[in-house]
Design a protein that fits this description.
The protein is mainly alpha-helical and 276 residues long. The chain has twelve helices and no strands. The chain has one domain. It starts with a helix and ends with a helix.
């Protein structure tokens, strides 16, 4: 195996390095548009291609997550063109659409359980996904907060997935964080970048919500570890927006997210320690 093959096969390159630089190029190209959220999808697509490839011989839950994540550009473009991302009805429709996709994602797992138990878990999972997406979309009026939401959600879900022995899900969550970080870097470095990029937080929230649920249903992650995750987008809103000091605002917002991230990771860590 050549040195290039070793590099391409390295998990850090597949999940973080390659997705980050690919997203950086896209974010820089789209920095003056409402489509900068496509950078996050680009990072996810690169990670998918390097980790699992694009074969669909078996349409597993992970493949369903892949299809859903790669389908989010349609929504990003639609939100940018219609400028309806601040509309309550549109946000509710997106929340319900993601909630409706959860039973489809978990269908094979829920089929193996009793009807009442499967219905309860399906409804709870759908509610979690909708709640997380709704919280993320409410950051839509601020591009920096939206990018920070994707970054911190990606990092949190990545750690949770790795602790539950869900390697691929963890790598994909890292890619979301890398793509969001690339978009954030461009936003902070380019003062002329327009604010309120429609859908910037959308792909990260969708992918992370579904990846977190799969880490519970197909991995060893306890369900209660997901409870702090919806607080992450809200935490980014605790720091007042200051366009004159973007780096300071971003740093303080990042710090505001850390308690929720630490709580989720701490719950998973202690749950894993007590079970061994």
């Amino acid at each position: 195996m050549t040195q290039m093959d070793h590099l391409l096969a390295h998990p850090a390159f597949q999940a973080a390095i390659a997705p980050f630089f690919a997203a950086l190029v896209v974010a820089a190209a789209l920095r003056r548009t409402q489509l900068i959220g496509l950078a996050v999808v680009c990072a996810f697509a690169v990670a998918v291609g390097l980790t699992m490839g694009y074969t669909f011989e078996t349409f597993t839950a992970v493949r369903k997550l892949e299809v859903t994540g790669l389908g989010t550009p349609i929504l990003i473009v639609a939100l940018a063109l219609t400028r309806l991302h601040r509309n309550e009805r549109v946000r509710l429709a997106l929340d319900l659409a993601l909630a409706a996709s959860v039973p489809w994602l978990l269908w094979r797992v829920l089929q193996q359980q009793e009807a009442a138990n499967a219905m309860l878990k399906g409804l709870a999972s759908a509610a979690f996904a909708a709640l997380l997406l709704d919280a993320a979309l409410r950051c839509g009026s601020d591009s920096i907060r939206s990018a920070l939401t994707g970054l911190m959600l990606g990092l949190a879900v990545a750690v949770l997935a790795f602790l539950s022995a869900s390697l691929v899900l963890g790598q994909w969550a890292v890619a979301v964080a890398a793509g969001s970080a690339a978009a954030l870097l461009v936003l902070l470095a380019a003062p002329t970048t327009s604010q309120g990029a429609a859908g910037l937080a959308l792909p990260g929230a969708v992918i992370c919500a579904l990846a977190a649920l799969l880490a519970v249903f197909t991995g060893s992650l306890p369900w209660f570890c997901l409870l702090p995750l919806p607080a992450i987008p809200w935490a980014t809103r605790l720091v007042p927006q200051d366009l004159e000091r973007r780096w300071r605002t971003a740093s303080l917002s990042l710090l505001a997210c850390l308690p929720a991230v630490a709580l989720a990771v701490g719950l998973a860590w202690f749950a894993g320690s007590s079970s061994t």
